[in-house]
UniProtKB/TrEMBL annotation:
This is Uncharacterized protein. GO terms for molecular function: oxidoreductase activity. GO terms for cellular component: membrane. SUPFAM superfamilies: NAD(P)-binding Rossmann-fold domains. InterPro entries: NAD(P)-bd_dom_sf, SDR_fam. The lineage of its organism: Eukaryota, Viridiplantae, Streptophyta, Embryophyta, Tracheophyta. Belongs to the short-chain dehydrogenases/reductases (SDR) family. Pfam families: adh_short. It comes from Gossypium tomentosum (Hawaiian cotton). The keyword Transferase does not apply.
């Protein structure tokens, strides 16, 4: 393993340990609305915030499905999470591809019957773009708005009715704001 990859892995492990210490929340039985049968889908869960959301949900006993546009990257993320002793499932999903979404929904129906939680985390950070082009801005809007909208529309029909009610969580960031960007033409 290269020195940079090893340092990144060490930093990620240290960060996960720190977050675990800070975010371990004991819930009493009357506060818990979920169980091991509660199914959560986290889009873009192969790294960053999505990765940690998936880890935290599994840590609280939920069944967690990670999605990633690139299945091999998703499988690697799942392996890393499974080292923590939790069970995860993974599926390829491109939130901009209608066929990918349809295949995912059918897989969910067949394997789980439905879901209880959808965490829309997949997205593109405008501020990390290498250019200020219209094409890149369109990619950001397509992913961050239309991709999220596509997922909500496709997943609502497979959300399980429950006493605690199903949940949709949309992750965003103030970094996605368009103010402060130059207009280079």
């Amino acid at each position: 393993m290269s020195g940079k990859k090893e340092r990144n892995k060490e930093r990620r492990e240290k960060r996960l340990q720190e977050i675990s210490l800070l975010r371990t929340i004991p819930y009493s039985d009357d506060q818990r609305w979920w169980s091991q049968e509660t199914v959560a889908v986290v889009t873009g869960a192969n790294r960053g915030i999505g990765f940690e959301i998936a880890r935290q949900l599994a840590g609280h006993g939920l069944t967690v499905i990670l999605t990633s546009r690139n299945i091999s990257v998703g499988i690697e993320a799942t392996k890393a999470l499974q080292e923590g002793g939790f069970s995860y499932d993974v599926h390829q999903l491109d939130i901009l591809d209608g066929e990918s979404i349809s295949a995912f929904v059918e897989w969910i129906k067949q394997k789980y019957g439905g879901i209880d939680i959808l965490v829309n985390n997949a997205g593109v950070n405008f501020n990390l773009g290498f250019d200020n082009s219209v094409e890149f801005a369109r990619q950001v809007v397509d992913n961050n708005y239309y991709g999220t909208k596509n997922m909500i529309k496709a997943m609502i029909p497979v959300m399980k009715p429950s006493a605690a009610s199903a949940r949709i969580v949309n992750v965003s960031s103030r970094l996605g704001r368009l103010n402060g960007r130059r207009n280079d033409g």
